[in-house]
Design brief:
Helices cover about 45% and strands about 10% of the residues. A five-stranded antiparallel beta sheet has the order 1-2-3-4-5, covered by helices on one side. The longest helix is centred in the C-terminal third of the chain and has 18 residues. It is elongated, with a radius of gyration of 19 Å.
């Protein structure tokens, strides 16, 4: 059994052995330290298992929305976790307990069942986020917590689902661009090594397109960003499913 701080070859072998246990639709993607376990049939969400190459040796369940530049946090936008805990289990665990293909497979299946598979469709997810946003708006301190990736995800779901007027969406994007959060403003945190768009670049482009009332261009920008995100993780096209945009409540 690998103890802690697995080397890159050890993680690649563990990922391959775990994939053999999991079977379809799980696959191994990426290379080197960026090797991940991911399921075929990817839609709006990038959901995968990666390994933290530190002495802690934790496994990371990442769930990030593909319709914008991915959240470069450990667990993404929604439904992610680390291997310190099993889903629905408050007991903290040693990550080394999962450095065995069968143990890791069991943890992955639990995460997939209780977190990955419970991420709702776009409209339902937006409804939940709107409820959280409304509750926090009633308390100034809590409202300050609704920023960064939470605000970006809320605004992008509003854009894709078309739940606000064009003027309302422009105001939303202005709020995102004015967000002082470090992840948006500090170049060291949002620079993409693969040349993909930064958060400010993406939202500035999106704002210009919406200001011009060009819905096809808006959808194409989002699809191009999704493709860039998948390319970043070296996901083959054959593992990707098509996505659809809901009919907008406020056409423009």
């Amino acid at each position: 059994m690998i103890i802690m701080g697995a080397t890159t070859p050890q993680w690649k072998q563990l990922a391959a052995d775990t994939r053999d246990i999991l079977g379809d639709p799980w696959e191994v993607a990426g290379s080197g330290r960026k090797t991940i376990l991911v399921r075929r049939g990817i839609g709006w969400w990038q959901q995968h298992i990666s390994y933290e190459p530190t002495t802690l040796g934790r496994f990371i369940a990442y769930s990030g929305f593909l319709g914008k530049p991915l959240a470069y946090t450990q667990i993404g936008d929604s439904g992610g976790t680390t291997s310190d805990r099993f889903p629905s289990d408050p007991r903290q665990r040693r990550s080394r307990d999962l450095h065995d293909p069968q143990a890791l497979a069991d943890w992955i299946l639990a995460v997939a069942s209780e977190q990955f598979d419970t991420v709702p469709d776009l409209n339902d997810h937006l409804t939940r986020l709107e409820e959280v946003h409304h509750r926090r708006a009633e308390t100034p301190v809590a409202q300050q917590m609704f920023s960064s990736r939470s605000l970006q995800l809320l605004v992008m779901l509003r854009v894709i689902c078309g739940t606000r007027s064009r003027e309302g969406l422009l105001a939303d994007i202005d709020d995102v661009l004015a967000d002082p959060d470090t992840a948006l403003r500090n170049p060291a945190t949002f620079r993409r090594a693969d040349g993909g768009p930064t958060y400010p670049q993406f939202f500035t482009s999106l704002r210009g397109i919406i200001a011009a009332a060009d819905r096809p261009a808006m959808q194409q920008l989002i699809l191009d960003t999704r493709r860039d995100n998948l390319r970043h993780y070296k996901i083959p096209e054959s593992w990707v499913s098509g996505v659809t945009f809901p009919a907008p409540e406020h056409p423009w």
